[in-house]
Amino acid sequence: MTTKYRPEVDGLRAVAVIPVILFHAGFEWVSGGYVGVDVFFVVSGYLITSIIYGEILKGSFSIVHFYERRARRILPALFFVTLICLIVAWFWMLPEEFESLSESLIAVNLFVSNIYFWQALDYFAGPAEMQPFLHTWSLAVEEQFYLFFPLFMLIVARFRYGMMLSIIALGLLASLSLAQYGANHHSTANFYLLPTRAWELLAGCLIAIYMHDHRIARSSLVSRLGGSIGLVMILYAAITFDKTTPFPSLWTLIPVSGASLVILFANGNDVAGRLLSWKPVVGVGLISYSAYLWHQPVFVFAKERSLGPVSDGLLLWLSVLSILLAWFSWRFVEQPFRNRRNFTRAQIFKTALATSCLMIGIGTYGLQAQGIPWRFGEDVERIVNVRMTNSQVPEECNATEGRFLRIDETCEYNENGEKVVAIWGDSHATPLVRPVANRVETLGMRVKMLVYTNCLPIAGITRFDEPDCGKFNDQVMDYLLGNDDVELVIMMGRFPLQIEGEVFDNGEGGIEDGRIIKAIPAEQESVAYRDDERIDIVGQRLVSTIDRLVDDGKRVVLFYPVPEVGWDVPYLLAKERIYGIERQAPLSTNFARYKERVASSYRQLSRVEDHRNILKMEPSALLCDTYLPGRCATHFYEHIFYYDDNHLSVLGSSMLVDQMFREMRNRGWMNEQQLKLTQLGENDEWTDASMP
Questions:
Q1: Which of 28, 118, 316, 649 is deepest in the core (most CB within 10 A)?
Q2: Spatial separation of the C-alpha atoms in residues 224 and 221, rounded to whole Å
Q3: Strand pairing report for 639-640 and 635-636
Q4: CA-to-CA distance for 126 and 138, rounded, in angstroms?
Q5: Dihedral (C-alpha) 601, 604, 607, 612: value to the nearest 10 degrees?
């Protein structure tokens, strides 16, 4: 049987790409639009195998010719879109973002971006939506598959027909089984990597071989309805699946089987075939590859430029823009390079190699130069430096999900000191470490950093999604109690996030991009508490924790919540400078909104009774209703108090530590001589002048 052009298959490509575009645009009614990639895999496996198998049977198959076709098909548009992205990124992206882009650029040109993103981030997590090359993971999967597939086909085509199909079917079942296992045990690797995706391509492969040697009967009811049923299955998955659906897994059989049914049965005589063969649908299918390449960068750079939420109307317009750009690159990039009269095989291979090397070189430079900060002026570099230096503490000093630290593995500063200051908390406590260590060094004290990201410093409390948090807190208490070296315990955590169980919305357009986290009793993780019960227990455990520390002879500094911002402060300020936007008023948030946000936290923290060995510190006393009436300041002229949307910068934390030592002196915990020895005042030159 001779392979002939089937317009309905191009129409199926349109059905694949449109949900993907709408999904990445963020439209919730297409929450499963990512299944379009799975449809692409089936179509790709079908079309490529049709060509390879047909040529093998004719004795005309050439591996070199195969890779020439792939190069002509894939690389010109990919290089073109990548080049445009680099130009825009050069002018719009901050060094941290450009460094990440550079790293992913290397991976894209080595066709290992799926492996890179597997290691770097969750496809469904917030940061993923700001990666211009995120979508290239699927291209990497395909190219890795086609690196071995032609040789595989040359081998299996030597077997009898039934044996050949059996071998491919076994590979499909093995890959599907691995995907089902991976969905439950290694979800991120499962999503990105070839072994759990190969079965989707092999599904198309089986269909191609079967259809090459068999005619599909068009008279039966199944034949007449098969294409329509398949189309409904794809649309059902695109509308009903979401990021919580285990994927790929047995659930993926729905869109994959749907695509397979369309390929098998859709034709010009049935409803699905006529719909998919409609010229506008076929037209979108023809440019679907370019549309796929364009849509993610278009959304990312629109969000980069907007500095705020992008409206649904604009997102819809950007979706249309992706299609228009796709037509342009299809017409003026894809088509000319596919024509052998324009470019010879040698020219294609040499140009591809040279361009890939150039891209890898640019990516390597961008990575080594840490995002090339000199692209912008000194003002932007200064602001960016706040983000880059953040807490001045190595990331590996923070225990976090997947990186549990024993007490002897936690970081320690001023190691020659005899007495210990323990800093216990979540990532909000991390910025305190360096300023405290700098100040107590001359007192002969060392600082023990006991930080677990997103884990409140309360014994007997853990996170609903991370039991290691509770284990970490238990070992911290075991370390502190009965340890006479520990004189001072500083406790700080982002209490509102886990007590309220809600990300922060400042009510003025600044909405935190994060996940819901709740603190729960450690010994009853599976119990479903009402929020009021859960919060009450958290408060009880906090009181008990501090009472035990004080009874053991420790002095305790308890920090109340740092005002959250909702906007990434240095990011927003730097972007405004880059885009030439003049700020009319300092960036700040409503003090009343802060008090509303922390009301529950304050009630629980206030249950800790006053004691001569307990010092309560309120960061809001420094930042709110001081620099700006009724507002919580995020910066004062060039002095920036945050390194993101909720963590204090080196400067902000130093201010807080300065105030803490003043209060410790007032409490009689330190005398004037000790206070001077802590070098208090290294920031006084500006703080005294700028404080209201």
A1: 649
A2: 5
A3: antiparallel
A4: 19
A5: -50
pLDDT of amino acid 214: 79
pLDDT for 442 equals 86
Residue 465 — φ and ψ, nearest 5°?
A: -115, 5
Fill in the DSSP letter of residue 309.
P
Q: 421: alpha, beta or left, given left = phi > 0 and alpha = psi -120 to 50?
A: beta
For helices 7-25 and 288-306, angle between their N-to-C axes, nearest 10 degrees? 10
Distances in whole angstroms, Cα of residue 669 to Cα of each of 138, 221, 490, 610? 60, 87, 14, 15
* Helices and strands of the chain, counted as H and E runs: 29, 12
pLDDT-flagged residues of the chain (< 70): 1-3, 126, 217-220, 524-528, 673-674, 677, 679-692
For residue 548, the SS3 value is: helix
Q: In the numeric block, which tokens belong to residue 319?
A: 């979706």
- The H-assigned helical ranges of 195-287 are 198-213, 221-240, 253-265, 271-276, 279-286
Would you state the pLDDT for residue 425?
96
The full DSSP string for 377-446 is -HHHHHHHHHHHHTTSS-GGGSBBTTB---GGGS-EESTT-SEEEEEEESTTTGGGHHHHHHHHGGGTEE
pLDDT in tens, 105-132: 999 999 999 999 999 888 877 677 889 9
Q: Which helix (H) or strand (E) holds 463?
A: strand 461-463
pLDDT at residue 687, rounded to an integer: 40
Give the burial string for 576-609 (b: 16+ CB within 10 Å, else e).
bbbeeeeeeeebbbbbebbeebbebbbebbeebe
Q: How many CB atoms lie within 10 A of CB 528?
A: 9
